[in-house]
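ESCALATION

Customer reports they have been waiting on this structure for their group meeting. Please prioritize. Original submission:
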Amino acid sequence: MEGLLDFLKTNQAIAFITALMIFFVTMLLVVRRVIGFSVTLLLFIFSILAGLVIVHYDTFPACFRDAYSSNEKEPTKQFDMQILKAMKDLQTEVDNGKETLHLVLNQVQEVFQELEGQKQKLETFIEETQEHFKNEVEEVK
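Update from on-call: job pushed to the front of the queue and completed.
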C-alpha cells in the first residue's frame, strides 16, 4: 500500500492523473456535444502539455530562476537610480522656487516701503496744504 502511495506522490503519477482528468472531461463534453472538434483538439493537446510540464516540473524553476535572477536586480537598481534622480531634480526645483519666492517677497516688501514713504510724503503735503489754505483764509478775513 505504501508503494502505491509513494507512486501517486511522484511527478509522473500526478502528470498522468492530470492528463487523464482533462481527457475524460473533454470526452464528456464531446459526447454531450458541448464542444466542437477544434476545442476538443485543443483540450487534448493541453492535456498532453500539462502532463509533460508536470513531469518536468523540476527543470522549469531552474530555467526561470536563471532567466530572471540576473535581470531582476539590474532593473531594480536602474529604477532606484531613476527615483533618486527624480527626487534630486524635485529638490532642485523646490530650492529654485524658494529662491524665486524670497526674491518676489523682498520686492513686494520694497514696494510696500516705497508706498509707505509716498504715503508719508502725501500726508505731509496735505497737512502743509491745509495749513496754507487756513492761513490764506485767515488773512482774507
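Sent to customer with the following note: The chain has a mean pLDDT of 82.
Escalation resolved.
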